[in-house]
Amino acid sequence: MHVHVGTEAQRHDGRILNIGGGGVLLKTECPVGTNDQISIEIDLKDESKPISVYGVVVRNDARGMGVSFIRVSEVNSDLIAYLIRKWQREETPQV
C-alpha cells in the first residue's frame, strides 16, 4: 500500500490495519495532518494495477491514520467490498 499527500508525486509505504467500505486505518511514516487529502494505492496480489482511492485524514495518532474515503468509483467500491469479505473469511477459524 502506498500513500500520496495532496498532489505530490512521492509515494510513502504503508500498511493497512483495518479497512471498511467508508475508510481505512493505516500505518505509515508519511507526514500528514488531520483534514489533509491523500490518495491511496492498494496493491493486490496477482493484479497488474492497484486500487486507487482518495481520502481525507480524519485522525492521526499512535493507533494509526484514520482516512475517510472520498470520490471512490463504483468499481473500486466493489473491489474494496470484495477484499473485506475475502479477508474476513481468511481470518475466520475453520472447524
Q: How are the secondary structure elements laid out?
A:
Blueprint: E1 2-5, E2 12-20, E3 23-28, E4 37-42, E5 51-61, E6 64-70, H1 74-91
Q: Find the CATH superfamily.
A: predicted glycosyltransferase like domains
> What is the SS-derived class?
alpha+beta
Instruction: List the helices and strands in order.
Output: EEEEEEH
CATH topology: Thrombin, subunit H
Task: Describe this protein's structure.
It is a single chain. A hairpin with a 6-residue loop joins strand 1 (2-5) and strand 2 (12-20). The protein is 19% helix and 45% strand. The protein is built from 1 helix and 6 strands, in the order ββββββα. By secondary structure, it is of the alpha+beta class. The protein has one domain (2-91): Beta Barrel (Thrombin, subunit H). It is globular. Strands 1-2-3-6-5-4 form a 6-stranded antiparallel β-barrel. The mean pLDDT is 83.
Question: Can you give me a brief rundown of this structure?
Answer:
This protein has 95 residues and is an alpha+beta fold. The chain has one helix at residues 74-91; strands at 2-5, 12-20, 23-28, 37-42, 51-61, 64-70. The protein has a single domain (2-91), classed as predicted glycosyltransferase like domains (Thrombin, subunit H, Beta Barrel), CATH 2.40.10.
